[in-house]
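Hey L., structure's done. Input below.
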Amino acid sequence: MTADERLDQLEPLLSEALTVLDRHTYQLKQLNSAVGQLSAAVAQQGDNISFLLREQVEMKTDIAGMKSDIAGTKSDIAGMKTDMAGMKTDMAGMNGKLDLLVQLIQGSGK
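Output:
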């Protein structure tokens, strides 16, 4: 077999191998691009999760403050109820004294 005949046999094989290599190169470029897009999406999701976690911590702090405020308000309301009960007692005492004064005034006018 001559050198030209060997080259004629190798040329189609080499061409086929280069075609397969080109196809694999294209597929690797597509895969690389897809991995890059996936990495960007994962990074964005990580940022979103971090943001949500920070917001959750802030909300927990706000809720704790609100609970404290509500407890203080309940305490204030309880104090006001006690004060109102004391005022009612004082008013009843004053009404009794006024009634006594009215009776004394009416009794002295007779």
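Helices lie at 3-108. Residues 3-108 form the longest helix (106 residues).

-- N.
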